[in-house]
Amino acid sequence: MEWNSILAFELLPKAKRWVASLPWRGDHRVLSELKVPINSVTVEPRQIQLDPQALGPTTATAAIKAHLDLLLLGLESLSGESSEAVLAAAKALNLEEYIGDRVALWRLRNANPLRRTSGEPKKVEIAEARALARVIAYLAAQQQARIRSTLEQLEAALKQELSPFRQPLVGDYLGEFISHYRSRMVDGDVRDEDSLAELALRILIELLFYSSPRGAERLWKALLNRPEMDLPASSKVGSDALPSS
Amino acid sequence: MPSLTLSQTYHQPTSTLTVRGEAPLPSRPVDGSARLPLQAIESNFECQLEIRQGETTKTLQGDSVWLKNLITVIDRYVESQLSGTPKGTFSGTAAIRPLDFISHRLTVRQGEDRIAQVDLSMTQLYDLLENLSQAAEDLPQLDKLATLPTPAWYRQPTAIAALLAGGIALVAGVGLWVSRRDPPPPPSPPQEQLTAPEAAGDLQQRLESTPAQ
User: Fold this and answer.
1) Which of B79, B84, B126 sits opposite A208 (nearest CB)?
2) What CATH number corresponds to the domain at position B94?
3) What's the pTM value of the predicted model, to 2 decimals?
4) Which ipTM did the prediction report?
């Protein structure tokens, strides 16, 4: 595979350094400062009574929407399966109310603010996000053997100071993930290969933990604890590009 | 009181956890096919954890407090990993911290004066979490299980803090007393009391302070 060989030659010497230098932070840029100045927060009794947000969030945050889509991207990169597998899983879990057809799935995935989609940010209800989380855990459980083999190959490669890109399963997964990411996400053209590989491997690791019988619960908890993300500048401007999936 | 020993083994590809303890003998005989659940365990709880690392196996063991600490630490650590903010954590007799992208160092107390370290890969961490999660589900009474009072009471963090506070108060009191009377007293015994527990607690402090760095 040409892609693999290029990466192997270019990145083999860097592999060890790359692993050692991986920053211990989330794959999203965490907001470093408050977006709203403290003195601008005012409490008006009338607003509290009328604003449903005061009772708790009813829609998924940008970080949750983005992460759900990235986990699906990871699963897709591992198995090559597309939306059919997601719809079949939703049906098996009786979640057709939320993910009943391709259009519904397209809307949920394209709510990811990192997507090259047009228009205003799309809302995803908490119940829809939770349904998607259950589907992801279900699909991860189905693919557990492959997830685990890929991860074991990665661990063995790093132990022997070999490039992860040269391992068949890991190399294929990384190639697929990076290619999908580049074509679908607004910052796909500007993020370097190493940063995308890091993101892909983090997603792979997470999928192993979500492949457990307790995976859905674990994923939902992790999503709720995930810090809000700082969007790339290009995602804040609507693009006219067609949705890629 | 007559009792029955119950045990359960949890298997994952790289780790095996065995828990056992004693339950009071049921007043009515249990039929052959039925088994008492682990929830019936009330005393003499112990566990053994085996972690396979290639050709070798590392074996760790402990009581209910040890297992509870391990469950808490691993659960909290994985939670931090999955929420995108991985960080080292500790609880009582167990601690874990990241070594690099996919490796983690688990440090646990073994007996009175020994600590053990095991480096875990991601798949080993997953297997360990699965075993511990299952055991936690089967043993909801883990918090309340009776454990024998440890002779090394002075190694407990709270005991160390209390002893240090008491020692300081005593030294201060002696100082005050000395400042009011003559002649000067002989070397103060409370200082010995103050230093001895510190030295004994060094292991605990190392265990707790290392991962937090």
Assistant:
1) B126
2) 2.30.31
3) 0.73
4) 0.75
